[in-house]
Amino acid sequence: MYCPFCRHPDSRVIDSRTADDGLSIRRRRQCPECGRRFTTTETASLTVIKRSGVVEPFSREKVMSGVRKACQGRPVTEADLAILAQQVEESVRSTGIAQFDANEIGLAILPHLRDLDQVAFLRFASVYQAFDTLADFESAISELRTHPSAARPDSTKE
What we know:
The protein is α+β, with helices and mostly antiparallel strands.
């Protein structure tokens, strides 16, 4: 690790702690050359392979953006979307795999979205589970009815 002050190519770790609920490691370092201290944050990188073959880093913002479209007109807040994106990242990281297809990320979103809002879940699932017919929708609705989520009740019904 290069010192950000004098560019010496080495540094000594003084202290290590977990950060972001265990998703990263915060290290306090000291340069043996100039003696100055600095902090680094280390995270395991997650990458996503797009349909086009392009590889890019995982982005919570992209998860939120995609889910936001499915949640249009629904009682879902930005805070709800941020929590969902964090849950998706945690579930993806917990697999121990560092590289995913974009479709796998979409499928990882589904259980969390189902708990958040069932209508948004159906909208999103119709894309990521490739619904082709009304029977696909009927099957998904039937599954929702037989196994309702333990999430908050739909507050739009009166």
